Amino acid sequence: MGKLPIGLQLFTLRNETSVDMEGTLRKVAALGFEGVEFAGYGGIEAEKMRDLLQELNLKVIGSHIGLQLLEEKIDEEIAYLHTIGAKYASIPWLEEDQRSAEAWQQHFDKFEQYGKRFRDAGIQLLYHNHDFEFHVSFDGNFVFDELFDRIGPDLLKVEMDIGWVQYAGQDPLEYVTKYAGRLPILHLKDFLKGENGMDTVELGRGLLPRVELIELSEKIGVEWIIVEQDNCANPPLEAVEESLNWLKNNYLNK
């Protein structure tokens, strides 16, 4: 069995990409990442972005697209993803006022509608979790699980941020197993529990059972392992390089 490819969620480098998207992508490619997942495009037109990624031999995995853009500019987002060759679009985040039980009832319907739009365009919609999806329940189900129970896998699949799953008090290995076959992208986010909540750290510095999760991911059909660090104590480019080096030493080169 071949090794899973390693990508980077560019949200980690948001300060760098906001200043120089092209230069940051060149640095990411030079570090050795195989692919990138976008969180905005730095104002670069789709055709130029496509050509740049091809030049750098960086595969485009997909993009995180906020609810406002999905509601107001979904056609433009689909067109951009088509041009750069992305396979996935992900719902990345809900604001606090969008997380009530009443709000979730609306999300179930909206996400299904978005899923149909993307499916018809040949793109798979995903949902990327944090911990709050494990704090609201429907009929004894965490809203995380209720979401995927209500919406079929052809319309919505799982982009599991496994650090947030574990931080929420759930068993990460059990959750990866539970969504086998519906989990194309795994965010391998290491963390420590800080005084003010979750402190994201470089791979190898935290509490995540990293090796076991990677081995399980290989077995259950995960397509990409994604490095993401919400906040970095060290310069972000140094942080993602350290995480990639951990993956090289403990997975890719073994």
Kindly describe this structure:
With 254 residues, the chain is an alpha/beta fold. The chain has a single domain (6-252), classed as Divalent-metal-dependent TIM barrel enzymes (TIM Barrel, Alpha-Beta Barrel), CATH 3.20.20.150. Helices cover 45% and strands 20% of the residues. It contains eleven helices and twelve strands. The strands form three sheets. It has an eight-stranded parallel barrel. β10 and β11 form a beta hairpin. α3 (46-56) packs parallel to α5. The model has no long low-confidence stretch (mean pLDDT 97).
Features:
single chain, 254 residues, alpha/beta, TIM Barrel, two-stranded antiparallel ribbon, 20% strand, globular
How would you name the CATH homologous superfamily? Divalent-metal-dependent TIM barrel enzymes
Mean residue pLDDT:
97
Structural class: alpha/beta
Task: Identify the overall geometry.
Answer: globular
CATH architecture: Alpha-Beta Barrel
- Low-confidence spans: none
The end-to-end span amounts to 13 Å
The strand order across the widest sheet is 1-2-3-4-5-8-9-12
